[in-house]
Amino acid sequence: MTDAARPTAATFSAQAWQANLPVYEAIRTMPFNMALADGTLPGERFRHYMIQDAHYLIAFGRALAIAAAKADDADGLVQFAQAAQVAVIVERSLHTDFFRSFGVDPAEFEGTEMSPVCHHYTSFLIATAHAESYPVVLAALLPCFWIYAEIGRDILARAVRPNAYDAWIDTYAGEEFHEAVRAVIATTDRAAATASPDVLARMHEAYRRASQLEWMFWDSAWRLGAWPL
């Protein structure tokens, strides 16, 4: 684990990270991220990933906004309302930066539907955000923050530079993103500290499912996943 966060062993986050370490290792060593690090990732696969990520970020922003509405204090309200805003801003920046760099025009993005995995992941987040309690919502949202931070730093440590994907690497390995991740981990741990055993169990279930979907998202980009019919 990098310095994105170093929670103590008794916290929810430390327990969830350890319980799902095999999932993280599978993500870290999957073909998409290995090729991204050494600069050999085909542009077609990265374009697929970026288009689906733009779709994903819109839904992620909506889930964050619901988390803000469910927050149990003003700090949480501000934190996740701002995070929702950032998710939408990042999605828009893809149109002007990454999309332009990799030859994706707005019409192509608008005409490309969500892949099955992106649809599954975003549906899971929105459903969880609406149906579950605040601590469980945070647990479902946490892997997207935390795994990206860890993968970003891991790739940075072994990346071939210059790299066609330097901007992506620098974004997720950067201190600004890691500071935001540490804040989400801390908020999640505070919510878990007073949660009942049943809620904690649901938090772990949500964290695990979101972690699995993170792997599936990258794998789908590697396979250029699309609807079979």
From TrEMBL:
Annotated catalytic residues: E214
Domain spans labelled Thiaminase-2/PQQC: 31-223
EC code: 3.5.99.2
CDD domains (UniProt xref): TenA_C-like
Gene Ontology cellular component annotations, sorted alphabetically: cytosol
GO biological process entries: thiamine biosynthetic process
Domain of life: Bacteria
A matching Pfam family: TENA_THI-4
KW Hydrolase (keyword) present: yes
SUPFAM superfamilies noted in UniProt: Heme oxygenase-like
Pathway: Cofactor biosynthesis; thiamine diphosphate biosynthesis
Catalytic activity: 4-amino-5-aminomethyl-2-methylpyrimidine + H2O = 4-amino-5-hydroxymethyl-2-methylpyrimidine + NH4(+); thiamine + H2O = 5-(2-hydroxyethyl)-4-methylthiazole + 4-amino-5-hydroxymethyl-2-methylpyrimidine + H(+)
Known role: Catalyzes an amino-pyrimidine hydrolysis reaction at the C5' of the pyrimidine moiety of thiamine compounds, a reaction that is part of a thiamine salvage pathway. Thus, catalyzes the conversion of 4-amino-5-aminomethyl-2-methylpyrimidine to 4-amino-5-hydroxymethyl-2-methylpyrimidine (HMP).
PANTHER family the UniProt entry points to: BIFUNCTIONAL TH2 PROTEIN (PTHR43198), SI:CH1073-67J19.1-RELATED (PTHR43198:SF2)
Protein family: Belongs to the TenA family.
Protein name: Aminopyrimidine aminohydrolase
Organism: Ancylobacter mangrovi
